[in-house]
Write a structure and sequence with these properties.
Structural class: alpha/beta
Number of domains: 2
Number of helices: 16
Helix content: 40-55%
Number of strands: 10
Order of helices and strands: HEHEHEHEHEHHHHEEHHHEEHEHHH
Strand order of the largest sheet: 2-1-3-4-5
Radius of gyration: 22 Å
Largest sheet: 5 strands, parallel
Strand content: 5-15%
Shape: elongated
Distance between the termini: 39 Å
Amino acid sequence: MTNKTATDWNENSNSQIRIAYAGLELKDLIANDLANYFRIAFNNTLKDLEDYLGDQSILTIPDIILIEVDKDEECFALVDRLKHNFLLNGVIIVMLSTHKDKRLVQKAMQLKLHDFYSYPFSTSDLRERLNFLVKFKLIKPKLLELSKEVDITYKMPFGKRFLDLLIAGTMFICLLPVMLIVAIAIKLDSRGPILYKSKRVGTGYKVFDFYKFRSMRTDADQLLAQMAVENNQYAAQEQGSGKAAFVKIKNDPRITRLGNFLRSSSLDELPQLFNILKGDMSVVGNRPLPVYEAEMLTSNEWSMRFLGPAGLTGLWQISKRGKEDMSERERKKLDNFYAQKYSIWLDLKIIIGTVPALFQKEKV
């Protein structure tokens, strides 16, 4: 099967996708590069956009709302109003800024926008992203449908599954006393549940419940939006990128006293043995990602990492885990390499290399 390029994808999507646009500074750029691919209704001001949307019916509402950040930042109040309009429920909202500003990105994330682009950015990347968002509606409930759309289905080789059951089963039995001690220690250390459960995206965009021993405060998820902008190790590194795909917090203050030890020793990962026994993950593979991070890896180039097994450990963990010089792009390339080249021998090499990688220097 021939892989589709971004250009193929957008040309085949025709001009049926409707966009309502507001702003003047980037209007010419959008008109010149995107008008041939979408049906765009241009509005000069935020008020014009709001009036335009107020005139639409359920049959004519746009698929996407593109808004330039204005100098008074009234755009954020407008978005908040739009999100409370039942008629616009499910409409994709993307913001564009003429300059990079982490504070603006943070405000956009708090409003749960679908994306945020800072100029200069690639209009071809924006075009591909908008088409993808319309096609798959990448909000949390819709990720379940994405697994049906991937072109290649990953099937776990018998030898790999046998190795998973052997290793995970043996470790689960042997480490059961350790897990019991950790559970008691967490209960005594801070208030909250012993286990942390979150939705993760694994092989073929499959969403499953991911288990860890709790190492953070109970309000950790609520603080993530702000810290993903201010403290992210994978700060946006590619020109025009509004936010990084991966989120990894350096010296994370949300971690409890006991949590620092659990993370540095990787004891917090032990409940994932249950995920392996269930078949959600493998011992070796690409780390299953939180929904937010998975939504950022939707381009043809980077979706490859979801066509390999999800794993407890992998190339990233044994090569440069926790190192300052690891770029976001480098981690993506490691994930893609494993998805294409994995084998039993490579798995064994990674398993052997995981032991010294368990005790890392940085709290990330």
